[in-house]
Amino acid sequence: MQHRTLRCPRAAIVPATIVAGVTVLTVLAATPAAAAPTATTVRIAAPSSATIGEPFDLDVTIPATTDVYAYEITIDTDEDALAVVDGSVSGPDGGFDRVEQDADSITVVHSRLGTSPALSGDLATSLTLTPTAAGDTDLAVASVVLVGSDGSSTTLTDPASTTVSVAAVPTPAPTAAPNPTDGPEPTPSTSTAPTPGSTATAVPVGAGGAPVRPAGGALAWTGAEVAPWAAASLALLALGTTLVTLRARRARRERNGDAA
């Protein structure tokens, strides 16, 4: 059996070719030429010094950009020296920002939302880091990937870096605790307050105001001077005895004289 080849009339081919050509031209005219986002450099800024446990801000700026719908910034650092504070990242308005730390790498991502227009000009992002170890720590922008509104991308690999010197927390100088038993040494004093009806006599007084006991095997001593009182008592006793004796002699003489 022979197969016959169907042939289309030339008059039908020409109109079909024209329609196809018009369709292709219409599609090409409706599709804009792809233009990758542009940028030339990156800037990074952080304080030159910090202290363990005291957070600080890290700022990254991509200046003079065009047609940026999203970007990804990769920062190299030492995970044992710096830690990202959760939820601290911020970027241009009208977009979504996210930051992740994986080992020695920190990744910051920004993307526009919905129908938000692409960005141009200086793009700034910021995040907060907490120092966890003392020493000089480097922060280097390893790469920046810019994505345009049509999906084209541009990568910047020229790194920008800075160094932060982290100091340990100052240790306060120890202070000696006061000893409740410490205090000024008591100084011996002498009581000179006179007792009514007596002669003021100096009495040695020790710590706490207690009289000082006599040394050696002396008898108990109350601190009062008794010698003058004893002498006066003996004198009065002798005087009384003499008066009694004289009175008895006088009475005896008077009785003898009456008897004579």
UniProtKB/TrEMBL annotation:
Biased composition (Pro residues): 171-187
Biased composition range(s): Low complexity: 188-208
Gene3D superfamilies linked to this entry: 2.60.40.680
InterPro entries noted in UniProt: CBM2/CBM3_carb-bd_dom_sf
Transmembrane annotation, as ranges: 226-246
Keywords: Membrane, Signal, Transmembrane, Transmembrane helix
Residue ranges, annotated region (Disordered): 170-208
CDD domains, alphabetized: Type_II_cohesin
Residues of the signal peptide: 1-35
Name of the molecule in the record: Cohesin domain-containing protein
Taxonomic lineage: Bacteria, Bacillati, Actinomycetota, Actinomycetes, Micrococcales
